[in-house]
Design goal:
Number of strands of chain B: 4
Oligomer: heterodimer
Number of strands of chain A: 2
Order of helices and strands of chain B: HHHHHHHEEHEE
Helix content of chain A: 55-70%
Distance between the termini of chain B: 133 Å
Largest sheet of chain A: 2 strands, antiparallel
Shape of chain A: globular
Number of helices of chain A: 10
Number of domains of chain A: 2
CATH architecture of the largest domain in chain A: Orthogonal Bundle
Largest sheet of chain B: 4 strands, antiparallel
CATH superfamily of the largest domain in chain A: RNA polymerase sigma factor, region 2, helix turn helix motif
Strand content of chain A: under 5%
Order of helices and strands of chain A: HHHHHEEHHHHH
CATH topology of the largest domain in chain A: Rna Polymerase Sigma Factor, Chain: A
Radius of gyration of chain B: 53 Å
Structural class of chain B: alpha+beta
Helix content of chain B: 55-70%
Largest interface: A-B, 54 and 43 residues
Radius of gyration of chain A: 19 Å
């Protein structure tokens, strides 16, 4: 957690975007990754993370000193995502290899380079794609709980603060989410474990 | 512990997010329940698979874009704050009684700026006198000489004066030589004067007395 002095320092310089940037730099990647796992789309994830930071900047005077800034920030992001889902009923699908039209013609999309080894790239991409697809198939509440715990390492207590629900609810959501994921990811689980995936 | 209960707690057990008692109970259950152990292993494998997902790098354009948006937001906030500040200042000026908008610039001219303080000083100086006059008027209302005290003394003086051995001085008369004089304001009414027409003489107000005070001099021959 950030110390109170650092946060108070930024608060007194409310309109100082640079001070705010210094403050949130330590969370930007984590925030982007949560957004990426929630949305499943790099562009949407970027927009979501940027919008969350922008909202945090605008509403920084409402942040209560002495509470967890990280929790507050991720709560903004999760609320924002839920709001966006409610508004945008139609999910936009985008082809990964479709050329992008521009004013001068068409250009190929550049996919992120996950690894230096082409075989690993293929395997990693396949597994990552499957995991992401499995995550996308989860109900939003389960997805958020699983992403925050299994991918970003928040504790149950922190997740209950971010999602504003009881620890019992967090426990239940993570458990149900994992069971649903297990069904989707059975081919990728280790043989010793797949026996248990029959229920 | 039943299998149903153990399975509901399995993920929390896996994550070490259970209390000591529940953790021990699940642990004991897993020691002898094959089905729940397999459930545990499969959930653990699922968690492990999720752990293979690599964290993505932040897009290069993330901060340049966000910086631009933050800058625009800061400028907007500054504009909003500035407008708010101006609005408050305007409101404060409007509320000020010395502002030109009050009374169509009544207090804005240089002459008015000089006259208004002088007027205030005079007002302050006149206050004690006004207060004193007010107090006197109030006292007169409370204790009216004309209505209560004067009639009593008038009757008393007239009745006592006619007595041969009365002490004229104690009645308030000033005995000087041949005359018995009383300084008062209309102590005797018209009927009293008629009754003592032979012995009462009215004099003009004394020039020695301060102006503005009405005195009637009634002299009785000794």
């Amino acid at each position: 957690m950030l110390n109170t002095e650092a946060l108070a320092g930024v608060r007194y310089r409310e309109n100082d975007a640079q001070a705010f940037e210094e403050l949130v730099r330590r969370y930007d990647r984590k925030l982007y990754n949560v957004a990426l796992r929630l949305t499943g789309n790099p562009d949407e994830a970027k927009d979501l993370a940027q919008e969350a930071l922008l909202r945090a900047y605008r509403g920084f005077n409402r942040f209560q000193l002495g509470t967890s800034f990280e929790k507050w920030l991720f709560r903004i992001a999760s609320n924002l995502y839920i709001d966006k889902l409610r508004k945008q009923r139609n999910v936009r699908f985008e082809s990964l290899d479709e050329p992008v039209p521009t004013a001068t013609g068409q250009i190929e999309k550049a996919l992120p380079d996950w690894s230096t080894n082409p075989e690993d790239v293929a395997e990693q991409n396949e597994l990552a794609g499957e995991i992401q697809a499995a995550l996308q198939s989860l109900p939003i509440n389960y997805r958020m709980a699983v992403v925050l715990y299994d991918l970003e390492g928040f504790s149950y207590e922190e997740i209950s603060g971010i999602l504003r629900c009881s620890i019992g609810t967090v426990r239940s959501r993570i458990h149900r989410g994992r069971r649903l994921l297990r069904e989707r990811l059975t081919p990728y689980l280790k043989p010793a474990a797949t026996a248990g995936a029959r229920w | 512990m039943t299998c149903e209960k153990a399975m509901s707690l399995m993920s929390a057990y896996l994550d070490k997010e259970l209390g000591f008692d529940e953790f021990r109970q699940v642990e004991l259950h897993l020691a002898y329940c094959e089905t729940c152990s397999q459930e545990y292993e499969s959930l653990k494998a699922t968690k492990d698979v999720l752990g293979t997902l690599r964290a993505a790098e932040l897009p290069r354009e993330f901060w340049p874009e966000l910086r631009e948006r933050l800058g625009a937001c800061a400028a907007e906030q500054e504009k909003t704050c500035g407008a708010r500040r101006d609005g408050l200042a305007r409101r404060d000026r409007r509320r000020s009684i010395l502002h030109p908008s009050m009374g169509a610039g009544l207090f804005s001219s240089p002459i008015a700026k000089a006259v208004v303080p002088a007027f205030l000083v005079l007002l302050l100086a006149a206050l004690p006198a006004a207060w004193s006059a007010h107090r006197r008027a109030a006292e007169a209302e409370v204790c009216s000489w004309t209505d209560t005290i004067e009639p009593y003394f008038r009757d008393y003086i007239i009745s006592e004066y006619d007595r041969p051995l009365s002490d004229k001085t104690s009645l308030g008369f000033v005995v000087t030589g041949q005359a018995v004089t009383m300084y008062t304001s209309d102590l005797l009414g018209p009927s009293d004067k008629a009754a003592h027409a032979g012995s009462i003489r009215e004099a003009s107000p004394s020039p020695a007395k301060p102006p503005g005070t009405e005195y009637t001099l009634i002299s009785y021959p000794r």
